[in-house]
Design goal:
Layout (H helix, E strand, L loop, with lengths): L10 H11 L3 H13 L5 H16 L3 H14 L5 H12 L3 H14 L4 H13 L3 H14 L4 H13 L3 H14 L4 H13 L3 H14 L4 H13 L3 H8 L9 H8 L3 E2 L9 E5 L4 H7 L2 H7 L4 E5 L5 H4 L7 E3 L1 H7 L5 E3 L4 H4 L17 H12 L5 E6 L9 H4 L16 E5 L6 H5 L7 E3 L7 H9 L3 E5 L2 H8 L4 E5 L22 E5 L8 H21 L1
Parallel strand pairs: 1-5, 2-3, 2-5, 3-4, 6-7, 6-9, 7-8, 9-10, 10-11
Helix pairs in contact: 1-2, 1-3, 2-3, 3-4, 4-5, 5-6, 6-7, 7-8, 8-9, 9-10, 9-11, 10-11, 11-12, 11-13, 12-13, 13-14, 16-25, 21-24
Length: 542
């Protein structure tokens, strides 16, 4: 925030500012109160308002802080400090549009105010206005060439834009200027991971954690890096750091549930609540640990999860009851322990070589019978399920999802293939109105949950999909499943540079974007001959 110069002659203001600087916020507020109530528009009152705003913010009274800074702006509109300080606070509160307006007010009055321009750049970056953000960061560096934080943030922005060489240059400049800047080590780790310099990535993550031991993003980044490299022992342990942060979704579980978190204690005769914190794909993938928990002696295993999983997992082995989240939370005090399925590998010391077999899901026969007629109408063909888009709210959806179903068009030319859309949500409208030259059976919105999807997949010969829950569902059903993976931010569970998966060694094949690929065309080109070969083998089995 903008510096305050305590040059006001009023001794009370100086004393109040001393209290503020020492953290005695209530005492400072009491001292400046008479000035706050006065009608004076002089420097003493402006400084008193600034002190009052900072002290209110220190006491968690953000509404009062906002009020004081807005009064300061009203009585001294040409003084930029209140605009900037209020902008920083509103930015932190997520009111970024208002913050942006305030920073632009500062820059209109004083174009070379580097701090306001830096904060404006960070807002533009957060809102994916990358070109404008880059311009602002470069302006900051023209004003302050030795601003390590600006070099670091610009490097982070350039990494997002796949301008890796430029990104590395700016991040390393930041580290030359400030070797102890933990955020720069973290950004370097992320960049090295993208360009496949994994040893350097690991070193940078570890340096960030030395500098800031409680650095959540670095701890989680290191954990997933290690797991992607097959180093599960330390990876699983570090991944538990997701529980150390109360505002993180996982950390909230500790306060929501009325029993102890399982830390690997003996389960013989104990009741266990398995609590869903992660996505549908995670739950299907790690459902393999339900029978493992049961085999460890747990007397009663209940699963608290979203409704989309209920019918699918209700009849699965290893689970005695499937509850919705509200019911599970209400009953949690009656359990001995709670755990997440994603924590189970830690406690069972899972290695790449000891991954349990997938939970073999059993689709409901009545649902199979319900979905069979439209699929059976695709006579004399190999039936292939397709998913080309994931949940748009996923952090990596822009990279993992295909632009449209038309991206898959080269597959239509393979003789003997018929395609069934397994698409839900994003992309479903495309499936419903596919062009005539794209032979795609759309089953409509009657597919309500993963139990329906499982019944449809049971009638298919192959599933080709992007990295979504359907990949884990098809693989757990034992169906051949080909997964399209992005080059950027590929999920740790698919590991590095493999075309198979130790999680599904029998039936999953991975088709990865390669370094330098722009879009998915080359990936689809590689699938076409593989699909022709698959169809040839399938015809021999008919």
């Amino acid at each position: 925030m903008a510096d305050m110069t305590a040059t006001a002659p009023h001794g009370v203001v100086l004393q109040a500012d001393a209290h503020r600087q020492s953290g005695r916020f209530a005492d400072a507020l009491a001292l400046v109160q008479p000035l706050l109530d006065s009608c004076d528009a002089g420097a003493d009152r402006v400084l008193a308002l600034d002190i009052a705003a900072f002290c209110s913010l220190g006491l968690g009274r953000t509404l009062d802080a906002e009020k004081y800074w807005r009064v300061s702006i009203e009585i001294a509109p040409d003084v930029t400090g209140a605009y900037q300080n209020l902008g920083v606070m509103l930015k932190g509160l997520g009111r970024v549009a208002e913050a942006e307006t305030l920073f632009r007010e500062v820059l209109a009055k004083s174009p070379d105010t580097a701090e306001a321009r830096f904060h404006l750049a960070s807002i533009l970056f957060r809102e994916h206005r990358f070109g404008d953000a880059e311009a602002e960061y470069r302006h900051v560096l023209r004003i302050m060439p030795a601003a390590a934080e600006a070099h670091n943030n610009l490097g982070n922005l350039l990494e997002v834009l796949d301008r890796f060489s430029e990104a590395e240059s700016h991040i390393r400049i930041a580290l030359c200027l400030n070797p102890d800047l933990a955020e720069a080590h973290y950004n370097l780790a992320s960049l090295m991971r993208q360009v496949r310099r994994l040893d350097e990535s690991e070193s940078a993550y570890r340096r960030a954690l030395v500098l800031r031991p409680g650095y959540r993003d670095a701890s989680l980044g290191l954990s997933t890096l290690l797991m992607s490299m097959g180093r599960f022992d330390e990876g699983w342990e570090r991944y538990e750091s997701r529980y150390d942060y109360p505002l993180f979704v996982h950390g909230q579980s500790k306060t929501m549930l009325g029993c102890q978190q399982w830390q690997g204690e003996p389960l013989a005769g104990k009741s266990l609540l398995v609590w869903q914190e992660d996505g549908l794909g995670d739950m299907v993938q790690f459902a393999r640990y339900l029978p493992v928990l049961k085999a460890a002696g747990a007397r009663h295993v209940a699963l608290g999860c979203v409704n989309a999983l209920h019918r699918l997992l209700a009849n699965g082995s290893g689970v005695d009851a499937v509850l919705d989240h509200a019911t599970a939370q209400a009953q949690s005090a009656s359990f001995d322990y709670w755990t997440s399925l994603v924590s189970a590998p830690l406690h069972f010391r899972t290695t790449v070589e000891s991954i349990p077999e997938p939970l073999r899901l059993r689709p409901d026969q009545a649902l199979i019978d319900q979905w069979r007629p439209p699929i059976a109408a695709l006579r004399g063909a190999v039936r292939i399920g397709l998913v080309w888009k994931g949940n748009p709210k996923h952090h990596n959806d822009a990279n993992r999802s295909l632009p449209s179903v038309a991206t898959l068009a080269p597959l239509w030319s393979v003789p003997g293939a018929r395609f069934v859309s397994l698409q839900k949500g994003q992309g479903e409208e495309e499936a419903a109105h596919a062009p005539e030259n794209q032979p795609l059976l759309h089953l409509g919105s009657a597919v309500t949950d993963l139990a329906d999807s499982a019944a449809v997949i049971a009638e298919l010969d192959l599933v080709i999909c992007v990295d979504t829950s359907i990949a884990h569902l098809a693989a757990s059903l034992g169906k051949p499943c080909w997964v399209l993976l992005p080059a950027r931010d590929v999920d740790w569970r698919w590991m590095n540079d493999r075309d198979d998966s130790p999680w599904y060694p029998q039936n999953v094949r991975l088709f990865r974007q390669r370094s330098g690929d722009r879009g998915w065309a080359r990936v689809i080109e590689r699938i076409v001959p593989s699909l022709a070969k698959f169809l040839g083998a399938a015809s021999l089995l008919d």
